[in-house]
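Sequence only, no structure available. Ideas?
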Amino acid sequence: MKIRTNGIDLNYTVDGNGPWVVMSHSIACSLHMWDPQVELLAKHFKVLRFDTRGHGASSAPEGEYTLEALADDVKGMLDGLGITACRWVGLSMGGMLGQTFALRYPGIFTAMVLADTCSRYSPDVWPQWEARIKTAREKGMEPLVEPTLSRWFTEPFRASRRDVTDPVAAMIRATPVPGYAGCCYAIPKINLTHRLKEVRCPTLVIVGEQDQATPMEMAREIHGAIPGAQLVTIPSASHLSNLEQPQAFNKALAAFLEKSR
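Reply:
I predicted one. Tokens follow.
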């Protein structure tokens, strides 16, 4: 299904019944990144998954995106669906989007899960993102597939679980270049740590113990900045901890969200 918001079309799906849970994926993925979590959550919640601007079946306009614009996309989607309160589950870029939204539109999130994400980057990371933009624009997404998978999964998992990594590789390949580039401009500009004390909803921070993309110290920084936040570390997992260790991830997620019902 699609909904018009903030000048673009967002693709979304809804599963289950109950209080709303909204799930937001990583860069170069789609709403299908959350497939291992939906069946569990849909037993008790109404689960809204969506393709972020520039990803999946959503619009992918040219230009430099901002996290604030992505948050405005979400606000328009929630308004269009009549959602005035929800729980947020975001991983990587989805976690950055969650933090941005919670500060931009306080009072809508009744609980928030921030997985494998960060609240600020040092300015010296920009050349890495700039290089990814250049590669995508000049050569397409294919050259980015293997380097991205190496950051997102541990080496033993990549060697033994092609059934999981191949679909992720397909999502990376399918990401529209304008959408990938647009989000690459947005992500490294995040700088919210100093404002996280303003977050008032219960928050769970999850991080893969071997996360290379947003390492544990970034999760600890968020955990320390948000009043009353909880922190869960997922052993034997890198960046996409929800896919590498779904049982451990789901256990932490379900226990936290159950308290918020």
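The chain has a mean pLDDT of 98.
Hope that gets you unstuck.
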